[in-house]
Each structure stands twice: as structure tokens, then as C-alpha cells.
């Protein structure tokens, strides 16, 4: 599969926090979800891709080039949404349309107006009159209106109601249909990631714990409710973390079928992305 984005051993050290040795690849026609607790390094990773911060080590390639080779053209083809992004308070979408058409060579006014309509955003209200959700939708409309091939979305669905979130996820799924586009989206809402992503990347305290196909993960990982004695006998390579409760131990195992074969009476549940995140952050290793 051809990649639209790749990161090789990217490291950014802030002193107290370090994004460490990130290596991942996003194929064309795919959506990758970035999952991690608050402060895990999701925004830092997205900023490193966009060259918004200087990385200490490693390489980022977008469309097979590094940003420094052809920054203007590469950025033209990337649509971004950041939770803290702010537009001039007194500007209306109508005015932004004009400004953006002079910034992006491929700005598509018709598409922008269609998205504004679809998202029920007024053309003539200033940004300061927009709610948080409306501002987020406005950013998404902009990201989708300049023929971008890659979308980098930081918490793009947070602050949106469930109907609007569903709308955005459908648009993202449409966006990748032609197999030439791709999306990297960070979210705390693991159910959104579960719904739309082909790949998931887990970050924890700046380290990448996993980057793999979502379906493979959901098909194989499980939570085994067992005794301490059973856990002691389990090979270290077969599980990622465990949590002890009053009556039993819950273990996040990598291959639930394998454990079931060894323990036919095992009480096993499939693991959701949320389970995996919670075990990785709070579980004992
Ligand atoms: N400019 C900076 N200087 C120093 N530390 C920084 C800087 N920017 C971010 N950090 C630190 O990097 C760490 C990761 O922050 P980041 O915003 O990437 O996390 P996140 O996973 O996006 O979190 P959240 O889910 O809360 O948005 C945090 O500890 C933060 O304090």
C-alpha cells in the first residue's frame, strides 16, 4: 500500500515531556486514529508533522517529500483542524471565503458554501457569535474546501453533539473513498475512532505503544477475568497490562483465542479501544 504520510523515529524533547521515537505510516485511502490520555503527546505529534515545532530527531515525509523540500505545495494539500485554532473574532465566513481564496491556490468557494449550508453555519455572523461546536465545524469546512489530500484533525469532533459528530465521521469516510486521500485524527472519543478508523495509534506519556490495524486489534485483544495464580502462569509476551480488583484480576491479553484454547473455561470479553487505553494508562505491566 502506498503511504501518504510517514514518520521515522521522530523525537521532540520539551524537558519535562518527550515525544519519543515515533515511527508510523499512514496508507492512502485510510483513516488513522490517534488515541492517548491528556498530555500523551497527540497535539505535539500533529505539530511535528506540520513543521509547527522543530523536532530533535527523525524524519517526516508527506507525499514522499519532507516539508522543507516543498513547504508551500505540501501545505496546500493538507487540511488541518486544531482545537485551539482561532480566527479573527470580527470576521464572518463570507469574509473568510475571500481571504482564504487568496491564500489557497485551489480554494473552492462553491464547496465551502455547500459545507456551510450542510453544517448550518450562517455566512454573515462574526466568529465571536459562534459556539465552540460551530467554530469546529467552520474549521472542518475550511479543511475540506481547498482540495486537500491529507487531513490532520486534532480533537475535531470534541465539542460537537452526537448528530454533528456522526455527520463529520460520514464526511471523513466519504473523503477517503477515492483511495488517494487519508486522514489522521486524534480524539478522546474512542467510539468515534472505533467507528471510522482503519488504523489506530496509541500514545502514552510521549511513547507510541501500538500502531496497527484497528480490526486486527479488536478481533484479537481481549480482557481475561482470571485469578492471580492464572495470571502468574501467563507468559509475559501474551499480555500488555492487568488490573487487580477485589475478587479477580482483569488481564488485557493480545490473543484471546489462544488463551481460550489454553483455558477452555476462561471468562473472556473482547477489548474495546477504550479498554485498551485504560489498561495501558492505568494497568500494571
Ligand atoms: N511548547 C511547549 N513547551 C513545553 N512543553 C510543552 C509545550 N507544548 C506541549 N508541551 C507538553 O507536552 C506534553 C504533551 O502535550 P500535548 O498537547 O501534545 O498532549 P495531548 O495528548 O494533545 O493532550 P490533550 O489530550 O490534553 O490535548 C504536555 O505535558 C505539555 O505540557
UniProtKB/TrEMBL annotation:
What is a single Pfam family found in this protein's UniProt entry?
Answer: ABC_tran
Q: Which UniProt keywords apply?
A: ATP-binding, Nucleotide-binding, Transport
User: Which residues, by range, are in coiled-coil regions?
Assistant: none
- For whether the record's keyword set contains Kinase, the answer is no
User: Known SUPFAM superfamilies for this protein?
Assistant: P-loop containing nucleoside triphosphate hydrolases
Q: Which GO terms describe its molecular function?
A: ATP binding; ATP hydrolysis activity
UniProt key word Transport = yes
Question: Which PROSITE patterns does this entry report, sorted A to Z?
Answer: ABC_TRANSPORTER_2
Q: Which residues form the ABC transporter domain?
A: 2-230
> Which protein are we looking at?
ABC-2 type transport system ATP-binding protein
Q: Organism classification, top ranks?
A: Bacteria, Bacillati, Bacillota, Erysipelotrichia, Erysipelotrichales
